[in-house]
Amino acid sequence: MQALPSILGCSTSFRVEHQSGTLPSGRRSLAEAISSCREAWSRSLRLGLTQGLPAGSFPKRQVNIGVMIPENPIAVIDDHRATQLSTEGEIAVGRIAVWASLLERNLGELAQRLSNFSLSDPPSPGSRAIRHARTFLRSCEALKASDSAQILKVLAESDELLRTRNIVIHAVVGTSMKPGAVTFRTHPKNPDRILTDEDLDRIARQLHSVAWEVFDCSMTVARTLGKSTIS
Description:
By secondary structure, the protein is mainly alpha-helical. 51% of the residues lie in helices and 12% in strands. The protein has helices spanning 28-50, 87-114, 126-138, 145-169, 197-225, and strands spanning 11-17, 62-68, 172-175, 181-185, 193-196.
């Protein structure tokens, strides 16, 4: 196994070998092994820079770092499996994508109902559905003021959550100096977002909750306007 300081500055990929030919139960130990390796490499890189090593001395080619984990294990983890996220973080990002899709679908149906079906198809994506819903809500006199206020509140929450979803889903994920967190970087002009596993899980939970609040609003509109189903 090559020592980390000797590959200072390399672009790295990670390979984990198991003698048993199978992965250990769960991926927690694997994620921790990869994370520890990355952290050690990062510390070595920072140390080299602070000691004034010439930048040209850093190798440019990509290398593999062999990581041996408990159970003395020979299976290879492909590079696409080695993200900066922990297992829990990867799962949370998946939930964010799933519940954001449900939210966008429900927003499209809400906008269609508010238009009294003058829209032949539910508008998509979510941001467009929100604009349509707000426009039709202003002219929907049949709704109670309290119902309209609730719909506007839910639309505002949906808009904010979908913006957050975009940051997570469309970002480049990198390391962070904050323990247990990763950095999400989108447009160069936008500030980086540093999120923990708990942050990602909270975003997923909020998307799930608001998606069903939008559905409830849609049912309120259906009862008021006398349309109970969407074809």
